[in-house]
Write a structure and sequence with these properties.
The protein is an all-beta fold. Helices cover about 0% and strands about 30% of the residues. It has strands spanning about 20-25, 30-35, 60-65, 75-80.
Length: about 90
């Protein structure tokens, strides 16, 4: 992700502490993968590798980026990626 908004806007709070959740559209309970939190970073690079259980050709992956906070995580953005954009050839 690049150019995330700073959801930790209070003075002295630092920058957003982003993490990403990946799930299959329409099947959020069947497959959910989460990255680690990267503290104080508006341009995180997770380099996270995982297999999405229950994924099938034709599915759409949903990537949701959040700012980790002690009480409630704030949404920073969302991306929908149709399988035709990466399956079976993959992507980098």
């Amino acid at each position: 992700a690049r150019g995330l908004r700073d959801a930790d806007w209070l003075p002295g709070a630092g920058k957003s502490d982003p993490y990403c959740v990946c799930e299959i559209a329409g099947k959020p309970k069947e497959a959910k993968i989460q990255t680690k939190v990267i503290n104080n970073n508006l341009n995180p690079v997770w380099e996270h590798q995982a297999e999405v259980p229950a994924f099938k050709q034709g599915d759409t992956l949903v990537f949701k980026v959040y700012d980790k906070d002690p009480i409630k995580s704030d949404s920073l953005g969302e991306l929908h990626l149709d399988s035709a954009q990466f399956y079976p050839q993959g992507f980098e």
